[in-house]
Amino acid sequence: MLSTYQYPQFDYVRPPELASADVRRVPVVVVGAGPVGLAAAIDLAQGGTPVLLLDDDDTVSIGSRGVCYAKRTLEVLDRLGVGQPCVDKGVRWNVGRTFLREQEVYNFNLLPVADHERPGMINLQQYYLEEFLVRRAQQLPLLDLRFRNKLLALDVLDDSVTLRVDTPDGAYTLQADWLIAADGARSPVRHLLGLEMAGKVFHDRFLIADVVMKADFPHERWFWFDPPFHRGQSVLLHRQADNVFRIDFQLGWQADPEEEKKPERVIPRIQAMLGPERAFELEWVSVYTFQCRRMARFVHGRVLFVGDAAHQVSPFGARGANSGIQDADNLCWKLKLVLDGKAPAQLVTSYNDERTQAADENLQNSTRSTDFITPKSATSLTFRNAVLELARQHPFARALVNSGRLSVPTVLTASALNTPDVDAFAGDMVPGASADDAPVGVNGQNGWLLRHLGESFVLLIYATDPAALVREHGAQWALLASAPIPVVVRVVTPTLGASEQGDAVLHDVAGRVAERFDARDGTCYLIRPDQHIAARWRAFDLNVVRDAVARATCTPT
Amino acid sequence: MPLNLQPNLAEPGRRYFRAYTPGDDFYEALMDTHRDLTDAQSAMVNAKLILLLANHIGDLSVLREALALARAGVADAT
To answer: Is the pLDDT of residue A485 over 60?
Structure first.
């Protein structure tokens, strides 16, 4: 049915293990080459860890699935080398319209926040994201991506995992120090280990219809409550790449999925919605239900669960793929330090602590949206409609309309890896927050702050006179850079001219670093490889930085 | 003071990183209050809630304004 996208078919290659009686041991096996598994494998491989990525299929995600990728995800994808193709292919929208019955209740314009490299979100079909990630994965010599390799069995030992893997040419056995389960909502790894998920099933069905518009249609997000063309339910319309529009119809629990999927039933519904003058072609139809639930723990010895395998949310708020990619972002630098023998396994446990907190926040937000969109009692329906009626005129009620809260990164305020503040700071860049972006100049070229953070720990130091600071502390910074867990110092200066002293100095061209980080002369931020803030001070002190690095990596001082 | 129609919900002393959080916290608490009640029971809870909040607000001019806005459009709505 799909006319705008040609599915790639990736080559299966006969694994060399089939020809050998020896059982090969590898540092990391990732199961599942969806967006999350690919992100994890790319992150590890580009950081120097050999990775084997197994997928039981040989193409990308079929049909209409993930749609919306938020700014934080794009920043992670930038670090993985695929942010630009996603932004180039994806579409942006700023205007959202909310309708109740026949009328528009109100509209909003999500003007992009100034001076960030990436927009608040893009819409892009999941298959494009996966295709870009696969292309990137195939460039990495340390990443062995194996299609049509299906996990059959696994045995979890104290210090390794043994896997049995099936291929078109027969089965082979592998040993891995660590296994990352990125194998989706129905996770075979989870089932093989007999692990459960707890949570809430929503008794509702949704129909997805992707349509190709034959003429221009506004680049807006439209959300209807109880529309005349679909009484008593909700409908969401938004645009993806290739002039494809995704429409989500709430069907209710009693609906017959097979009946609802029939084009003769879907097409009149869309015609009623768009109006008779709009020509379109139906590209994809499916029916889905969803659950809001998570595993109690994401770390089970040497098996690490990420993405939908670990947690599932309702689609409202785009928190599935977005949170999964942030799982990988959180996990991979920790796993690398542990694999390199520089940090104890306890650091991997912090992945569980930080990302279960994030999962709970995502579950809470997506459950709240679901409860607002699909009220389950007469009273909750009355309140919902009262909010919408009041929202026609009153700003306070607009703030309560919840048709999905866009995915934003969790501020890991409770993390044991944070060093609590001892100095006073204003703003949101608290320990545990992911660092805000800002424009910076490097050697007269315009760039972005986040492009200079990540991969290793970074100590960001704000200085009005960088040369004086280098004279005073340069020798100590060299000690940080050559430590077993290196910390790279990056100096940011507000002073034009002071930045033209080499690559190490960033010029705060728009003053946004000072503003967003409440930075002044001497302010230091210790930033983790995943761009989250670990600690901050008003002045540099070698020993407190070392203590904070130790704390952020669970290593003894 | 006239009736405040701007977003105004917050828990004192709590730090919010997202503007929508306090409103969503309240709405969830409101829905939870009605959980597992019959429609008649919910109507009773709502009536008691209005009386409690009205007494807390106290200012009758504010309450009259809210009463008028709450009723506006309801009698002729579909």
So the answer is: yes
Mean pLDDT, residues A119-144: 96
Q: Which residue of A has its CA nearest to B24?
A: A400
* Chain A contact for B16 (CB, 8 A cutoff): no
* Run of H or E residues at A7: none
B73: which chain A residues are within 8 Å (Cβ-Cβ)? 389
Do A156 and A300 form a contact (C-beta atoms < 8 A)? yes
Mutation for B interface: A369, A377, A401, A434, most B CBs within 10 A: A377
Query: Phi and psi for A330 in degrees, rounded to 5?
Result: -75, -40
What distance in Å separates the CA atoms of residue A53 and residue A37, rounded to the nearest whole number? Answer: 8
Q: Do A379 and B27 touch (CB under 8 A)?
A: no
Q: How confident is the model at residue A498 (pLDDT cuts 50, 70, 90)?
A: low
CA distance A25 to A28: 9
pLDDT tens digits, residue range A15-40?
Answer: 999 999 899 999 999 999 999 999 99
What pLDDT is recorded for position B77?
54
Residues 6+ apart with CB under 8 A from A508: A438, A440, A462, A492, A493, A494, A514
Rounded distance, CA A132 to CA A73, Å? 14
Mean pLDDT of chain B: 94
Computed over every residue of chain A, the mean pLDDT equals 93
Test B78 with A380 for CB contact under 8 angstroms.
no
CB-CB neighbors (< 8 A) of A366 in chain B: none
Instruction: Look at residue A63 in the predicted model and tell me its pLDDT.
Output: 85
C-alpha–C-alpha distance, residues A391 and A476, integer Å: 57
Q: How many C-beta atoms lie closer than 10 Å to residue A512's C-beta?
A: 18
Mutate to test the interface with B, among A101, A105, A110, A400 (most CBs of B within 10 A): A400
Q: How far apart are CA A453 and CA A300, in angstroms?
A: 30
Taking only residues 38 to 77 of chain B, the set having a beta carbon closer than 8 angstroms to any beta carbon of chain A reads: 39, 42-43, 46, 69, 73, 77
Share of chain A above pLDDT 70, in %: 99
Beta pairing partners, A171: A166
Per-residue pLDDT tens for A82-115?
999 999 999 988 888 999 998 999 888 877 889 9
The rounded distance, in Å, linking the Cα atoms of A386 and A516 is: 38
Q: Where residue B57 falls among pLDDT bands split at 50, 70, 90?
A: very high
Residue of chain A with shortest Cα separation from B26: A400
Q: With beta carbons under 8 A apart, name residues in chain A contacting B31.
A: 371, 380, 383
SS3 content of chain A, % helix, strand, coil (to 5): 30, 30, 40
pTM: 0.95
Alpha helix ranges (H) inside A440-523: 466-481, 512-516
Sheet of A533-537, strands arranged across: A445-448, A439-442, A505-507, A487-493, A457-462, A524-527, A533-537
What's the pLDDT score for residue B34? 97
